Amino acid sequence: MPDCPPTPGSPLLRRWSGAAVVLVALPTLAVAADPASPDAKAKGGDPLAIESRTDRPDGSAALTVGRRLQTDWDAKLGVDVGVAPPMSTTPPPDAWLNGWTRQDRSTGVGWANVLLPIAPLGWDKAAIEARVDPAQDQGRLATTLSRSVPLGDDARVTVRNGYSLTETLGGPGAVLVAPTTKAGPPSPVTFGQALATDGGVSLDLLGSATTFAAGARYSTSDEKWLRTLSAEQKLFNTPFSVIGTISERPTGETDRSIKAGIKGNW
C-alpha cells in the first residue's frame, strides 16, 4: 500500500485539529435542558447555551459560542472567535494577477473548562482548563486549586495554587523572539514546552467589596519568580470594578497599571 501524503500545516496544528473539532461538536451533541424549565422560558431558548458578542468601532468583533454540559460538575465547552475588521482599502485590479491574496486576519480559540470539588484533598475546588489556538500553533492545559476560609462575617481568605503546560511549535526553523532587554537585542528562543506554577493569597473584605491579592509565578521559559500585588474595588454593588496592579517583568522592570471594567460569570 502506498504511503499516505503528509498532512499540511504545522505539527501542533495537526495534533490539535481533532481536539478543535471536538470542542465545536460536543456542545451540539450534549443533552439539552428541559425546555419547560424557568430559565428556558425566561431566555426563550436553551439555558445551557453560551453566547456573547462585542462589536468594536473599527468593524471588528469578538464572539463567544459555547455550551454548558449537563453533568454533576460545572463543565463548559466553546470557541472564542475574533472577527477582523473589513479592509480599509481596495487592492488595484492587477493585484490578483501579481499574486495578491486576501489575508484572513480572523482568529479562533477552542476552550474547555471543568470545575469540580476536591474537598477530601484539602481544597474547595479544582478548575481544569484546556485551550487550543491554531493561529499561534499553541495548546495549553492548566489546573488551579483553591481553598477559601471565612474570617468572621466580613472577610474571607482564599489560597490558590496552579500548574500549567504550554506547548508551542512552528514550522522548520521557526523561533520565538524573547522580549528586548537593556543588555542587547532580542534573542531567539526555541519552540517547545513551558511548565509554569503560580500561587497566591487574596483577602476579600465583604463589607466594602474590596479585594487585596498577592501572588508569584515561575515559568521554565523565564526561569525566575515574578511577583504581583493587586487591589480591586467594586463600585455601587454592580459588576463594575477598578483594579490597580503592580507586577514584575521577566526583564526586571516593574509594571504599574490601573484598569476599570466589568466582570461577570457566564
Defining traits:
two-stranded antiparallel ribbon; 2 helices; 266 residues; 12-stranded antiparallel beta sheet; globular; Porin; mainly beta; disordered N terminus; 14 strands; single chain
| Rough outline | globular
Q: Ends: how far apart?
A: 51 Å
Mind summarizing the main beta sheet?
12 strands, antiparallel
Q: Give the CATH level 1 class.
A: Mainly Beta
DSSP strand count: 14
Strand order of the largest sheet: 1-2-3-4-5-6-7-10-11-12-13-14
What is the CATH topology classification name?
Porin
Mean pLDDT: 75
Order of helices and strands: HHEEEEEEEEEEEEEE
CATH architecture label: Beta Barrel
Q: Any low-confidence stretches, pLDDT <50, length ≥5?
A: 1-43, 171-190
CA radius of gyration is 23 Å
Number of domains: 1
Helix/sheet category = mainly beta
Estimate the strand proportion: over 45%
The count of helical stretches stands at: 2
The portion of residues assigned to helices is under 10%
